[in-house]
C-alpha cells in the first residue's frame, strides 16, 4: 500500500511541475479551502478536474490518492492507507481524493474522514451517483464545483488571442469557428489534428467504463447504438417510446434506463419543455444536448454539418457553465401555435429570459420566423427580456411592440 501511495506522490509532483492554463470559474480557491465543508469537483472525464484541484492546492501540504489506479483499488485497506498517508505526507492539512467514486463504499469512508476533521477535496465523473450518495450520507456537508470543457473565452486565453486587438480580429473569428466545430476538450485544443481520434476513443471509453461496466450492461450494442443516435440527433426532442421503436430496443423501460445511464458521466443532458403544470412538463419530449461539440464531429453519423445545431449546443453548454440547471432554471418552450423557443431561463417562480439561437438571420423569411416565435412566447410567458444569438449579427430590433436584442456568439461568450 505504501509503495503505491509513494508512486502516486511521484505522479502528483510530476503533474504539478507542468504548466497549465488557469480555468475561469466563479469560485475563489482560497475561500473554498478555508471552508471546512467537503469540496466536490464534478464533471466529465478529461476536462481538467484533477488539474483544477491540484492548482487549488498548489503550495499547500496535501495528501493525494488517485482511485483511477487499479493498484490502489486492488490493495485497498483503509487503515493501511491512512497510516501510509501519514508517513508519505507528514502533517498534511488537506486530502485530495481523485475519482473517488471508483472506491466501493466511498461515501461512508468520506463521511468518516469528514467527521474526523479532515479538510477534503474530492473529484468524480459520475453526476447522479455522486449527488445521490453525497445527499444520502453527507447532506449539507459539501460544496459542489462543476467543471466542463474549456469555454471559448478560456480557449482564446490559451491560444493567446485577444479579440479586442484589431490585428488579431481575423484570428479570433477563425478560432471561434474552430471552437464551434471541434469543442473545448483540453487535450485537443493545442493539437486539433488529434481531435477526432481522441474524442472518438474517449466516447467509447466513457460508454464502456462509466456506463456498461458500472451498470453491468450486457447488451453493449444497444447501448452504443442509442448513444450514437442521441449524438446524431443532438438539439432535437426525444422520447423513450420513439427511441425504443426507432432503434428496436427491448423495451421502453430499458430505453429510459439507458438514457439515464448516459447522463451520469456528463455525456448527455436532457432539457424539459417549460410548462407551469408539472404533469404536462413531465410528459413532453425532452431535447437532448451533448457536453461538447467535438463529440458530434468525431462520432455522430451526420451526413452534413448543421451549423445551427452546433451553435445551439454551444449556447446550451455555456448556460450550464453559468450555473443554469436543466429542469430547474433552464427549459425549452413551444408556444400554443407550436413555435419553438430554444431556451427559457427562470429565476424563482418567474421567467427570467427567452433565448433563441439562429446561426444566420439575414434571410427575411428566417428573420420573421425567429422574431415572431420569440414575441409569441414573450406574450404567453409574460417576459420582455428577449435575446437572439447568431453567429455574427448584432443589432437591436423593435418587433410587434417588443424590443429584441440580437448578439453574435462572440459577444455572448464575453470574449469580444
From TrEMBL:
Family matches, as Pfam families: AAA_14, DUF4143
Keywords, sorted A to Z: ATP-binding, Nucleotide-binding
Domain AAA: 38-155
Occurrences of domain DUF4143 (ranges): 209-358
A molecular-function term among this protein's GO annotations: ATP binding
SUPFAM superfamilies registered for this protein in UniProt: P-loop containing nucleoside triphosphate hydrolases
Key word ATP-binding present: yes
Domain of life from the UniProt record: Bacteria
PANTHER family tied to this protein: AAA+ ATPASE DOMAIN-CONTAINING PROTEIN, ATPASE
Protein name: ATP-binding protein
Species of provenance: Muribaculum intestinale
Amino acid at each position: 500500500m505504501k509503495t503505491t501511495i509513494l508512486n502516486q506522490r511521484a505522479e502528483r509532483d510530476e503533474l504539478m511541475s507542468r504548466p497549465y492554463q488557469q480555468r475561469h470559474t466563479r469560485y475563489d480557491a482560497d475561500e473554498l479551502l478555508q471552508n471546512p465543508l467537503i469540496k466536490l469537483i464534478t464533471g466529465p472525464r478529461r476536462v481538467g478536474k484533477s488539474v483544477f484541484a491540484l492548482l487549488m492546492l498548489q503550495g499547500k501540504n496535501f495528501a493525494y490518492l488517485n482511485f483511477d489506479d487499479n493498484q490502489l483499488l486492488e490493495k485497498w485497506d483503509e487503515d493501511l492507507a491512512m497510516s501510509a498517508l501519514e508517513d508519505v505526507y507528514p502533517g498534511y492539512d488537506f486530502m485530495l481524493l481523485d475519482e473517488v467514486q471508483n472506491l466501493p463504499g466511498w461515501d461512508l469512508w468520506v463521511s468518516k474522514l469528514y467527521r474526523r476533521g479532515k479538510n477534503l477535496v474530492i473529484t468524480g465523473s459520475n453526476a447522479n451517483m455522486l449527488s445521490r450518495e453525497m445527499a444520502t450520507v453527507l447532506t449539507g456537508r459539501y460544496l459542489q464545483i462543476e467543471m466542463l470543457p474549456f469555454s471559448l473565452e478560456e480557449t482564446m486565453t490559451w491560444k493567446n488571442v485577444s479579440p479586442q486587438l484589431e490585428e488579431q480580429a481575423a484570428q479570433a473569428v477563425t478560432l471561434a469557428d474552430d471552437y464551434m466545430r471541434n469543442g473545448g476538450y483540453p487535450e485537443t485544443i493545442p493539437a486539433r489534428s488529434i481531435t477526432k481520434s481522441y474524442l472518438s476513443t474517449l466516447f467509447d471509453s466513457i460508454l464502456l467504463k462509466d456506463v456498461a461496466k458500472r451498470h453491468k450492461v450486457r447488451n453493449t450494442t444497444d447501448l452504443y447504438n442509442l448513444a450514437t443516435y442521441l449524438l446524431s440527433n443532438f438539439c432535437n426532442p426525444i422520447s423513450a417510446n420513439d427511441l425504443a421503436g426507432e432503434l428496436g430496443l427491448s423495451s421502453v423501460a430499458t430505453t429510459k434506463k439507458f438514457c439515464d445511464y448516459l447522463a451520469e458521466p456528463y455525456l448527455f443532458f436532457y432539457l424539459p419543455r417549460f410548462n407551469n403544470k408539472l404533469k404536462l412538463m413531465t410528459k413532453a419530449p425532452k431535447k437532448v444536448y451533448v457536453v461538447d461539440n467535438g463529440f458530434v464531429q468525431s462520432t455522430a453519423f451526420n451526413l452534413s454539418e448543421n451549423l445551427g445545431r452546433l451553435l445551439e449546443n454551444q449556447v446550451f453548454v455555456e448556460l450550464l457553465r453559468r450555473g443554469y440547471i436543466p429542469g430547474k432554471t433552464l427549459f425549452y418552450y413551444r408556444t400554443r401555435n407550436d413555435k419553438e423557443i430554444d431556451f427559457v431561463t427562470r429565476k424563482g417562480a418567474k421567467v427570467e429570459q427567452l433565448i433563441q439561437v439562429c446561426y444566420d438571420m439575414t434571410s427575411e423569411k428566417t428573420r420573421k420566423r425567429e422574431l415572431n416565435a420569440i414575441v409569441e412566447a414573450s406574450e404567453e410567458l409574460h417576459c420582455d427580456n428577449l435575446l437572439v444569438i447568431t453567429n455574427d449579427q448584432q443589432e437591436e430590433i423593435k418587433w410587434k411592440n417588443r424590443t429584441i436584442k440580437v448578439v453574435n456568439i462572440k459577444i455572448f461568450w464575453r470574449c469580444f
